[in-house]
Amino acid sequence: MKKIRKLLGLLIIGVISVSVAGCSMIQKTPEAIKKTVVAKVGDQKITLGDVDQQIQSVITQLKEQYGDDYESNETAKSTLTEQRKSALEQLVQQKILLKKANELGVAPTEDELNKAVDEQLEQYKEVYGGEDKLNEALTAYGLDMDALKKMIRENETMNKVYDEITKDVTVTEDDAKVYYEANKATYTQGAGATVAHILAKFNDTSTEATAEEDAKAKAKIDEIKTKLNGGANFEELAKTESDDTGSATSGGSLGHIDYSSTQYVKEFMEGFKNLKEGEISAPVKSQFGYHIIKVTNVQSEDKVQEFDAVKDKITETLTQQKQNEAYNGKLEEWKKELNVKTYEDKL
């Protein structure tokens, strides 16, 4: 369900931040182009202007990258066309769901809508660093706070319809067991260990470290090793001393790594393959710097996770799949009922 709800939310998020994308069209005045009808949902029309409003950040990025005549660039045209198709489908779904909310009797109350607006505006302000920064972002894409509030209200209504469509979706334990048996390889953990490390990195990992860089990193890792030998806690030192910021916050943990993994450089893999449970390595040099590595949960052979350990995850996966199927099935039914027409050749 989270995945589908997230898709519905793209109508909001997509306006503020979307990936780059382009389109060919005959020469008309800008206003005439904006009014080009690219879809009909019952008696409602969707124009190219509506679509482009959804992907304004795309157009802005294209202009910055290719200039005002970006549509003459084949790469830009191709990318923008794909983005327009995606935005058009979202707008079609929006029209359908908003129309069906009242018919199904699931339209949210004014209090519910106001609550959703208040909560989500606070989230946006936090993400953008305050109301002023949020307003700047909205202005950059031709929007204002009222437009954002309207989108939030519409999104809340669409989520209510989604909930109504998927309310009867259930997944039994038998369903989960069948899936588990058919996908055991997915739940097989290869021989390996839970690996954590502390890194003293070189300044530039794209080139070979200078003697000075090497000596500096080696001195740092030796000092850390001395502290560990003196009884210091590995996880706490990783949090305060490791230059790998991605793992430092979790005590240097990289999770389970199979001994056969090719995702890590050879020197690092060789540095922990022969460590015993709870053992900490001597400093290990790689292209990234010097590592001290610790292993736990050492596993000498492949291990299949028990059904009970993954049952909840499987149930969530299957529920999501079934909700997706229910939603898409109902959407196609409503598209036929409302005689939805799309004109992608005009994008």
UniProtKB/TrEMBL annotation:
PROSITE patterns: PPIC_PPIASE_1, PPIC_PPIASE_2, PROKAR_LIPOPROTEIN. Keywords: Isomerase, Rotamase, Signal. Pfam families: Rotamase, SurA_N_3. Residues 1-21 form the signal peptide. Residues 190-297 form the PpiC domain. Gene3D superfamilies: 3.10.50.40, Porin chaperone SurA, peptide-binding domain (1.10.4030.10). Its EC number is 5.2.1.8. One of its GO terms (molecular function) is peptidyl-prolyl cis-trans isomerase activity. It catalyses: [protein]-peptidylproline (omega=180) = [protein]-peptidylproline (omega=0). It is an enzyme of class 5 (isomerase). This is peptidylprolyl isomerase. The lineage of its organism: Bacteria, Bacillati, Bacillota, Clostridia, Eubacteriales.
